[in-house]
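Re: weekly structure request thread

Next one in the queue (154 aa):
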Amino acid sequence: MEQPVSTILRNKANNGLHTLTPEMTVSEAVHRMNGENIGAVAVVSGERLAGVFTERDVLRRVIDTHLDPDTTRLKDVMTTEVIVISPSTTVGEAMVLVDTQNCRHLPVCEGDRLIGMVSMRDLIGAVVDTQKHRIEELTDYIYGNYGPPSGGAA
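Done, posted below.
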């Protein structure tokens, strides 16, 4: 859990980054999210993060308030108070943020520039992969397959 989130981004297509502009509609965002099988998109002005639009925003800010998804602009319903992390943030630190801040997606920024996005699923996957590797090492150790081969000149 000490690995930086930058290692997760390296394994994701396009750094896990799917962006739309604030003027786009909720319908356009939902179509993109469904097409990419993702739960959130970054809303950007240039390279600057303006907000995040999530499945939760669709339910709470659009459907529950009876807004028309074909005419409602993302800028009117996106989450604007977004918690961001840097590429050097560890998986453990990111998991604490996801848990304590009740969010499922964390934009990754270098300064003011958005470079990627990690999800709760990405973080859990990184932890599971680390645990699998540790279990394999321990199993090899228990069954004698760990370390340099025994024998040889003394």
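The longest helix spans residues 120-142. The chain has six helices and five strands.
Next request, please.
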